[in-house]
Amino acid sequence: MAKTVAFIGTGRKAEKASLSGYAMAYTHAQGYEALDDVEMVAACDLVQENVDAFAERWGIGQTFEDYHEMLAQVQPDIVSICTWPHLHEQMTIDCARAGVGLIYCEKPMADTIGGARRMLQACDEAGTMLCFNHQRRYGAPFRMAKEMLDAGRIGKLQRIEWGGSNIYDYGSHNFDMAQYFNDETPPEWIMAQVDYHTESYWFGAHNENACLGLIAYENGVFGLVATGDMQGVVACHNKLVGSDGVIELGSAAEGAGALRVRSAGESEWERIDTDGEGMHAQEYINRAIADSVNAFLTGGRSMMDAHNAIHGTEAIFGCWESARLRARVDVPIEAEDNALNAMVEDAQLDPRPEAAKETS
Ligand SMILES: NC(=O)c1ccc[n+]([C@@H]2O[C@H](COP(=O)([O-])OP(=O)(O)OC[C@H]3O[C@@H](n4cnc5c(N)ncnc54)[C@H](O)[C@@H]3O)[C@@H](O)[C@H]2O)c1
User: Which of 63, 72, 86 is nearest to 7 (CA)?
Assistant: First the structure.
């Protein structure tokens, strides 16, 4: 019998997605629609017209405003959580306790590191598989980069570098990719600084304007993250630096393409054909959902598993924690909260809205 799928937070499909409404549930639904062994049966949103439009688009029979009611009445096998990050923890824990078998939740894991740990613990205790939508692992450029790395194309991996707008919302993907490239090795310690003076909200959460961080992994590999104004120092999405060469993904250099490699001593880059795939694609979400559902059905483990995602999440919160303590921090960090939020709340950081800055 087909496994039943329900959604929490359908969003409203807009012509152009924005940082306050991507309607990621639609991208998840596309993933489930491609599968034979699942059936989308219920959806829930606080906004009635959102859930109605979603149900109509995907042919879903039951709609709810209250997700507790949906869990109790429908008892779904699988739940996609597509709400903003500060809601993920409670919703995940409630789903696990309601007996959901697979939770496929949007990234970032939670709005505090303690919340991320509690979600994972609740799911482990309930025997629930918890996955996060870090879909890039299923993109050809990323997979091919990992294959080249594993084949020794750049020698021994020494350093992973990544850029991007921030370490949390967008950065969640890059920290997760670092785990992927580094064989899921946990971070050991972190030293970082952040700059946050212009208010930056992504899906209801503070994100720093710039961060420069050094992450030491347990296997001796280093991570270097540079976000916001500082991302130019990396100048690509992800860079793998080895003893014998460099691999770059999504380089800002003209004509670089999605993936290129250069061996030590060579002046020319070799551009790799990625079959038309770039940094982003709906297809990556389809593959990630297919793999997660397959792992759930067969008792396997997907790359999207929270036991992988937690290490990147520890590193994200570790960067902010290092800035708060003005110190190198060991991972797992002792703090349970969100150091960036705490620094804003006690006025150590004073991010002002863009408009207020312009008039001051
Ligand atoms: N994986 C990716 O590439 C990617 C891309 C963009 C966004 N995201 C992430 O997706 C997540 C969701 O963002 P979005 O922009 O799709 O959200 P959205 O704003 O489009 O939709 C969220 C919906 O949740 C509903 N909601 C809020 N509280 C609820 C509750 N208690 N019960 C039921 N419904 C509730 C809201 O009414 C809203 O319709 C965020 O964590 C974001 O970071 C991921």
Answer: 63
